[in-house]
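Per your request, structure below.
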């Protein structure tokens, strides 16, 4: 597997991943009936951000990451990132590789740290991964996420200083 910058030809494989994750309504604050055009606007990061893909040796996109400044202006020294892995590729360490790659990118770009604004508290595997990579939960917004099975649950804000 290789993690590289997104190119336009990747969209045909990235869009189904985003569509599936959004429709599940259990990890992302995206509308479940998101259109491809809306997804492009949300996922393809403008400079100085970056969108990346994890690609298998046969060219199959296994996952994708979006990264860049968390906020503009005075908040632009802290980065943020989001990750999605194709359902058939989960459990193979692709999310961990994408997250590590994103942290390396942010450090290389001179960011002071990385902040995740909305990690669904029931997404325990992601939380464990992020904590293993140096993130801590700095707060939880109670009942901020409408989970399809669990009802209203919290969204964690997580931070990793560099």
């Amino acid at each position: 597997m290789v993690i590289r910058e997104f190119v336009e030809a990747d969209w045909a494989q990235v869009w189904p991943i985003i569509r599936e994750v959004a429709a599940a309504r259990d990890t992302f604050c995206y509308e479940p009936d998101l259109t491809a055009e809306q997804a492009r606007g949300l996922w393809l990061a403008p400079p100085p951000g970056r969108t990346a893909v994890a690609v298998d040796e046969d060219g199959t996109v296994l996952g994708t990451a979006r990264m860049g400044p968390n906020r503009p202006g005075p908040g632009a020294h802290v980065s943020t990132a989001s990750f999605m892995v194709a359902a058939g590729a989960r459990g193979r360490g692709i999310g961990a590789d994408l997250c590590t790659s994103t942290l390396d990118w942010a450090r290389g770009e001179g960011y002071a740290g990385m902040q995740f604004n909305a990690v669904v508290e029931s997404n325990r595997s992601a939380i464990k991964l992020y904590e293993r990579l140096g993130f801590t939960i700095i707060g939880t917004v109670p009942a901020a996420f409408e989970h399809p099975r669990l009802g209203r649950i919290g969204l964690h804000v997580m931070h990793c200083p560099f």
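The chain has four helices and seven strands.

Regards,
D.
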